[in-house]
Amino acid sequence: MSKTNQKKEQALGDALRSTMTILVMIVALVISFGVFNYVMGNPINFEGGNPDGRALQGNYLGIIYKGGFIVPLLMTINLVLFIFAIERYISLSAAKGRGRLNVFVRNIQMDLSADKIEDAIARCDKQRGSLANVLKAGLVRYRALQNVQGMDKEQKILALQKEFEEATALELPMLSRNMVILSTIASISVLTGLLGTVMGMIRAFAALASSGAPDALGLSTGISEALINTAFGIAGSLFAIVLYNYFTTRIDNFTYKIDEAGFSLIQSFAASTK
Questions:
Q1: Measured by CB atoms within 10 angstroms of the end CB, which terminus of the chain is less buried, N or C?
Q2: Angle, alpha carbons 186-96-263 (nearest 5°)
Q3: Which whole-number Å values give the CA distances from 113 to 75, 267, 268, in the listed order?
């Protein structure tokens, strides 16, 4: 397949994935509001069967429901985080390929030292994954350049470097895809929780400021809303930060292995070419 066709397929895939991302968010929002209204807001969770009243003692569904309409938004954020964390784990596991990367890179280096290019290509086909795809493209070009006439050594090295860089550019976006969603959730989750907290405190102080005896129900509802939204927002942000750093570390490891393998490939080619 030519580079042009690969880029066209990648652009089409990116468009489809963007559409799927929007659909996932919409579905997560619908599910969250459904759970909030029909499960947490079920009358059996409240005294007298009234969702506007006090939640039953120890009934956490009813207690969370009292957090107000910000709660389903936070549930949506956390659900989206969960979905894309699974997607990133599956994608990065597929990008790793089969077997350990350290062993794979070392075996490729040994094949290059022995000029066993075909064996190295077969090893890439067996390993699969992003690193193997990049290396295979470089190895195929490596063998082709060895038989090219009319190019000096420097031109061949530059051609090999360009091939390796183009193959890397096609693979790297797949590794970092949807990472921006995790980093965004790390920020907006806690901010959304703080918004709910502020709104809950406004309700609590409004209850205190009411004429005559303070509205105990309004005061407790406002405080519950503030604390529940704070808890949801901090939890979502905490998990997003941990997951983002975990996946970033894995991506950095892939990038390092690609750079290491590319350096070995080019050095081997330079040493074997006159």
A1: C
A2: 105
A3: 55, 10, 7
Going from the C-alpha of 48 to that of each of 38, 60, 170, 195, 235, the distances in angstroms are: 17, 16, 61, 30, 32
Is there a domain that residue 162 lies in? yes
Alpha helices in 66-128 (DSSP H): 70-96, 101-113, 117-127
Does the structure show a pLDDT above 70 at 9?
no
Give pTM, 2 decimals: 0.81
Beta bridge mates, 55: 46
The residue with greater pLDDT, 247 or 167, is 247
Residue 149 is assigned to a structural domain of this protein: yes
Instruction: State how many domains the chain has.
Output: 1
Angstrom distance (rounded) from CA 65 to CA 225 = 9
Residue 56 lies in a domain: no
pLDDT score recorded for residue 207: 67
Is there a contact between 111 and 103 (Cβ–Cβ < 8 Å)?
no
pLDDT of residue 78: 93
The residue type at 35: V
Mean pLDDT of the 229-250 span: 92
DSSP strands (E only) in the chain = none
Burial 5-44 (b: 16+ CB within 10 A, else e): eeeeeeeeeeeeeeeebeebbeebbeebbebbeeebbeee
Q: What is the pLDDT of residues 173-206, one digit of tens each?
A: 888 888 999 999 999 999 998 888 888 777 777 7
Is residue 161 a part of any domain in this protein? yes
SS3 assignment, position 50:
coil
